[in-house]
Amino acid sequence: MRIDLSDKVAVVTGSARRVGGAIALELAKQGVNILVHYHRAEAAEVRDTLNAIKSQGVDAHGISSDLSQAEGVDTLFAALQERYGRLDIAVNNASVFQKRPLLDVTLADWDQTMAVNLRAPFLITQRAARLMAENPLPGGVIINICDAGADGPWKDYPHHGISKSALWMLTQVSALTLGPAIRVNAIAPGPVMKTAGRAITDEDWARVGERSVLRRTGKPEDVARAVVYLCQEDHITGELLHVNAGEHLR
Q1: Tens digits of per-residue pLDDT, 236-250?
Q2: I need a surface site. Which of 39, 109, 153, 247 has the fewest CB within 10 A?
């Protein structure tokens, strides 16, 4: 059954810009009210994202919190309760992405990556599930944004890859535990946006796309549409959806 998302409530972490912003906007186009979470986004970015969401005729509210701290999750859900008092969709998108050789990963690097990429989604899953338990069937939806780290060892991003592999396992355990009231899925995007803070030419970006079966890079909107699909389809849970032009097959 295809679920109508009109007037649902979603929280999307890390959604003031980039892929998270695209996810929030695509959900808004389906009639979803959005709690926009951010940490270090510029005020102008937050304002523009909120305005874009509101232009779809839905409500949007921004909340800043540091998800590397457990208190940041408390802040997020306090804002959600105050603004909406319910939750239908949770998208764990916020992530840190550090490139390090394995032997150069410090304890601080490891702790920050695990806190944001794994512990925060775990805590959000617990909190979201308790809120969603009050929803009538087909219930709530939790979507975790993974990446190539969910598919196998990633030499250049060891601690990041480990966190995303564990996030995929969290997805499966959560789907098994929380069904039938709540569906839990994951998405593994490929290259859909140049890495923030790193200079890369258009030619180099095109070469990145050549690694995939379809020989092209994607766009944030590709991931956003996949999120909407998993929210609307009520017969899918415990799934990892690759949105990477077949890169994982290489």
Answers
A1: 999 999 999 999 998
A2: 153
